[in-house]
Design brief:
globular; binds 1,3,4-trihydroxy-5-OXO-cyclohexanecarboxylic acid; five-stranded parallel beta sheet
């Protein structure tokens, strides 16, 4: 079954508890449930979260062999990580970048994304609905299974 890798970076394990005025009250479990319900029939979702950059790089490398697309919210690594960008460049399928908050309304250091240099689509400021849109887009790009 084609699998979409759903990756969340640092501090997103605290989704629902951390700055709910910015990130909302839904949890990472809610995000996974949302993606599962947004996925077309025949697609599976593998969800991983880490606070460590190297773990995210390892999962992106694993996705080269086992996944048809990647949805990634790299958290603060968005704005700093050339290693994550390089790993994504080594992945051939569609990549969707998600940010729950509208980063362009926030501090200027959040305005630049290394990951956007590779992403095929960027969902910003839609809350967790951005993950559902990213899932639908990957299913559409990969095609019926
Ligand atoms: C975020 C935005 C980042 O700037 C921040 O560091 C995060 C979450 C978002 O989903 O809005 O951790 O990626």
């Amino acid at each position: 079954m084609p699998t979409i890798m759903l990756l969340n970076g640092p501090n997103l394990n605290l989704l629902g508890q951390r700055q709910p005025d910015i990130y909302g009250h839904e949890t990472l479990a809610d995000v996974l449930a949302l993606c599962e319900s947004a996925a077309s029939p025949g697609f599976d979702i593998r969800a991983e979260q880490s606070n460590h950059e190297g773990h995210l790089v390892d999962w992106i490398q694993e996705a080269r062999e086992s996944c048809c697309g990647i949805i990634i919210n790299p958290g603060a690594f968005t704005h700093t990580s050339i290693a994550i960008l390089d790993a994504l460049h080594a992945f051939e399928g569609p990549v969707m970048e998600v940010h729950i908050s509208q980063v362009h309304k926030r501090e200027t250091f959040r305005h630049h994304s290394y990951v956007s240099l590779r992403a095929d689509g960027v969902l910003i400021g839609l809350g967790i609905e951005g993950y559902a849109a990213a899932t639908r887009q990957i299913c559409q790009l990969v095609g019926p299974q």
